[in-house]
Backbone:
């Protein structure tokens, strides 16, 4: 019989968590309740708050005496973050479930993010709309909008809770067989405007006996790839699409953070890095483009995404950022430059065609990359040309075989 860990503030939301516990047990799922509130619970949990606080060497009396909500939330967050992986490693539960507002969501998801990819994770939250990246991070947490606050059992909350419970039950009881073909894993980055290149490279790598995981370079995709590389799952990185650096440097909405391109470099994982889609910064719908950029070269990619062409000066900064990461490499690395264009719309006759802007990017990379850290390969081809894609894939194979 499967067991679900239920994390929550059993002092303030005891009724709601008692309801959820009973529903799971009626469906044949064992429960492990974890109290992360400050005060005495309304129903006795399996793991008391004292154990959560003790995980970070703090006594509950200290938290109570401070009367500081921020300190209490921070402490219980760190406690759950440390305790939950230990409980999972000890076989105490198979999936994790929680409900809450901003505080409860912060506490529970911190622990969920520390669990392996594939462990069922469900968070019913008032925060499940808009930007949920602070809660989900690079994990696979399923967030359910609570619609109404997690405050009592009523016709709306009961419906939402039961849908979430059913989802968790389904994940626990219908586990798919593991996909184990023992092929070495390669990570590749793709954007809509570099799809032909990545698909060609993927097919080539798979024909050579590799399994290719493709990550959509939307900020979250880059973070997920970096996390898997840091986790030791990836044998090679085909980072053809580094466009997230455009958003990080210029201020777009799809940045992956300042650690992008770090994981392969610092872990010695063989990597081929390129400049796919480094001609564009991403914004939301047309009307959301910041006022200072309204006169720039803008392209309506779709109703919810507006692209802005990068300038030569911005490309120098982007190139500097990429070079800085490449120069951290302790393993084999190559940087490949497609001299005829870096995206589908950076080609002759296309709206972002910019030889001068591209040249600034290429020059920065050639000038700043340490040849002792990475080989720079220039090709008289477009990023989406078959010859470039296959050359990049073969270069990665060569690096992995060293």
Residues:
């Amino acid at each position: 019989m499967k067991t679900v860990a239920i994390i929550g503030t059993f002092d303030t939301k005891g009724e709601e968590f008692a309801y959820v516990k009973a529903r799971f047990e009626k469906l044949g799922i064992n429960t492990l309740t974890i109290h992360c509130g400050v005060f005495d619970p309304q129903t006795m949990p399996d793991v008391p708050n004292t154990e959560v606080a003790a995980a970070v060497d703090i006594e509950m009396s200290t938290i109570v005496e401070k009367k500081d909500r921020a300190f209490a939330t921070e402490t219980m967050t760190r406690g759950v973050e440390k305790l939950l992986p230990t409980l999972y490693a000890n076989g105490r539960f198979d999936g994790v479930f929680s409900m809450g507002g901003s505080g409860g969501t912060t506490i529970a998801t911190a622990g969920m993010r520390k669990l392996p990819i594939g462990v069922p994770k469900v968070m019913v939250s008032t925060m499940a709309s808009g930007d949920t990246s602070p809660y989900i991070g690079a994990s696979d947490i399923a967030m359910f909008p609570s619609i109404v606050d997690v405050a009592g059992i009523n016709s709306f909350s009961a419906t939402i809770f039961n849908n979430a419970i059913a989802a968790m039950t389904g994940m626990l009881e219908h586990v798919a067989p593991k996909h184990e073909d023992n092929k070495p894993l390669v990570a590749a980055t793709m954007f809509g405007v570099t799809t032909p290149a990545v698909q060609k490279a993927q097919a080539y790598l798979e024909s050579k006996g590799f399994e290719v995981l493709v990550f959509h370079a939307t900020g979250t995709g880059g973070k997920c790839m970096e996390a898997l590389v840091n986790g030791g799952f990836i044998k090679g990185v085909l980072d053809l699409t580094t466009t997230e650096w455009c958003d990080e440097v210029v201020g777009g909405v799809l940045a992956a953070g300042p650690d992008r391109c770090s994981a392969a470099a610092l872990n010695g994982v063989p990597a081929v890095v390129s400049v796919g889609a480094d001609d564009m910064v991403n914004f939301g719908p047309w009307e959301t483009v910041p006022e200072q950029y309204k006169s720039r070269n803008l392209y309506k990619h779709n109703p919810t995404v507006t692209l802005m062409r990068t300038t030569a000066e911005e490309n120098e900064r982007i190139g500097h950022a990429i070079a800085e990461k490449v120069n951290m490499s302790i393993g084999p690395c190559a940087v490949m430059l497609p001299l005829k264009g870096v995206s589908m719309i950076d080609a002759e006759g296309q709206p972002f065609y910019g030889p001068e802007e591209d040249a600034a990017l290429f020059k920065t990379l050639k000038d700043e990359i340490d040849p002792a850290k990475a080989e720079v390969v220039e090709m008289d081809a477009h990023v989406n040309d078959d010859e470039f894609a296959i050359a990049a894939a073969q270069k990665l194979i060569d690096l992995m075989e060293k």
Notes: The two ends are 47 Å apart (CA to CA).
